[in-house]
Amino acid sequence: MAERPTPDWPQAYGRLILPEIDSTNAEALRRLPILAGPAWIMTLRQTAGRGRRGRGWCDTPGNFAASLVLRLNEPPARLALRSFVAALALHDALVNLTGLTQGFALKWPNDVLLNDGKLSGILLESGAGGALVVGIGVNLRSAPPADADALFAPVSLRGETGLLVSPEALLDHLAPAFSDWEARFQTYGFEPVRQAFLERVARLGAPIRARTMHETFEGRFASIDDSGALVLDTSAGRRIIPAAEIFFP
Fold it and tell me: Higher pLDDT residue, 127 or 157?
């Protein structure tokens, strides 16, 4: 991999790298009272990472685990749109860092895929005083064993591409990318984020399945609406699905 210039670290964003902690999201919530502004907290080893819906997130040394703390006085629905901001930032950081233009894609609502495998996970949690914690894990060096219940097999950047990227190098690219997308979101609203996500999303216009807590829907992935919900064209008509797990038949 050719050496790529490191972008400037975004002003006003703090940076803390710890050798080992239980969870970067948990550490971010613990440090909320002493954080004066937005800050990235990264660890070189995470022992109790968390995924969506209470699932564990398996980390091994050399993989990326970090959380961004933001203080925002916004309603929950708008806070939740940061999952799209984070996914775009991570996608762009990976492309810019590796120089690869093929293979990376987004999966609604916020995963980054590599060659149709799950490369990353993003978890948003709220804290006191309008704080939002954006946790991001990326399989840089190795992927965990496949879970029989997983909708997408885990993959690693090194396993799929042969490239070995350090967590620190990814953070150096991710922080500026997030700052740029956050600035666009704050200035222009969700629409440019939505359009950019649709340009990078996997299986737009193709058949997918969406599994909610109670039902499973099959149809054509038509779009994402202005609330971030999945728009699915089914045999019974168009469905708007705010939250679901999706997979490719």
Answer: 157
